[in-house]
């Protein structure tokens, strides 16, 4: 069994501007790098002491840089890069804001966007990439105490979570926060969701971290 953590990359300028990124290779911004560092610290608390850790990522720069920050913090060694873990291609929608998308194609769920990858193809590709990353990690880590951190993208992780939760999560319209961490059980090519980090969870953790970091009154 491999302890598997799915992490969404840190923020980019296009995330901040609410633009659809897809396969467009947009780098992290400074906030995104801070989110990656925070995710690395939380992973250090979530992963069992003594575990050997491997880190894998999509081949897009925002995921690779997030993964490298995590790998450096956890002393995990080289990051494995898997093109099959990259974000869904959104075709002609890439670079647009949601309202621009709606003006052109209407409802997000029913839209047929020229050049966009189908959702079934995204899920099949995601599972194929995950299977390869797990197999490689098992060769590098102890089968009894190995952990694998996979850094990928919102839409791709969403499809893996839907697969692992029998379609229950994420809820309709719910956005996966940048830097969010979701744990799944992976055994014999089967996925089962163990923990899910919603936007509300991320806000609570940020508020707690800010309270802890705030200086004492009068200091």
Largest sheet: 6 strands, mixed
Note the gap between the termini.
48 Å
Catalogue the unreliable spans: 206-219
Average pLDDT for all residues: 89
Q: Categorize the overall geometry.
A: globular
Residues in helices, as a percent range:
40-55%
Instruction: Tell how many strands the DSSP assignment holds.
Output: 6
Question: What features would you describe in this structure?
Answer:
With 219 residues, the chain is an alpha/beta fold. The protein is 42% helix and 16% strand. The chain contains 7 helices and 6 strands, in the order βααβαβααβαββα. The chain has helices spanning 13-16, 30-46, 61-74, 98-105, 119-140, 154-164, 199-213; strands at 2-8, 52-57, 80-81, 146-152, 181-187, 190-195. It has a 6-stranded mixed beta sheet with strand order 3-2-4-1-5-6, sandwiched between helices. β5 (181-187) and β6 form a beta hairpin. α2 (30-46) packs across α3 and α5 crosses α6. The longest helix is centred in the middle third of the chain and has 22 residues, at 119-140. The radius of gyration is 17 Å and the shape is globular. The model is unreliable at 206-219 (pLDDT under 50).
Helix and strand layout, with pairings?
Blueprint: E1 2-8, H1 13-16, H2 30-46, E2 52-57, H3 61-74, E3 80-81, H4 98-105, H5 119-140, E4 146-152, H6 154-164, E5 181-187, E6 190-195, H7 199-213
Parallel strand pairs: 1-4, 2-3, 2-4
Antiparallel strand pairs: 1-5, 5-6
For this entry, give a set of tags:
16% strand; 6-stranded mixed sheet; alpha/beta; 219 residues; 7 helices; 6 strands
Question: What is shown here, in short?
Answer:
The chain is α/β, with parallel strands linked by helices.
């Amino acid at each position: 069994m491999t302890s598997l953590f799915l992490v969404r990359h840190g923020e980019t300028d296009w995330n901040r501007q609410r633009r659809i990124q897809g396969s467009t290779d947009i780098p992290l911004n400074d906030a995104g790098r801070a989110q990656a560092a925070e995710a690395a610290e939380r992973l250090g608390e979530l992963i069992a002491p003594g575990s050997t850790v491997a880190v894998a990522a999509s081949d897009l720069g925002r995921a690779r840089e997030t993964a490298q920050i995590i790998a450096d913090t956890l002393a995990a060694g080289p990051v494995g890069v898997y093109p099959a873990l990259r974000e869904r291609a959104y075709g002609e929608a890439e670079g647009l804001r949601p309202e621009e998308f709606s003006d052109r194609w209407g409802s997000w769920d029913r839209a047929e966007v020229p050049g966009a990858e189908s959702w079934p193809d995204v899920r099949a590709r995601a599972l194929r990439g995950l299977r390869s990353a797990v197999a490689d990690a098992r060769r590098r880590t102890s089968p009894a105490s190995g952990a694998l951190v996979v850094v990928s993208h919102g839409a791709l992780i969403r499809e893996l979570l839907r697969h692992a939760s029998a379609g229950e999560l994420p809820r309709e319209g719910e956005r996966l926060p940048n830097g969010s961490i979701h744990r799944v059980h992976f055994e014999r090519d089967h996925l089962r969701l163990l923990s899910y980090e919603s936007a509300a969870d991320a806000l609570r953790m940020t508020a707690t971290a800010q309270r802890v970091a705030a200086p004492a009154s009068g200091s």
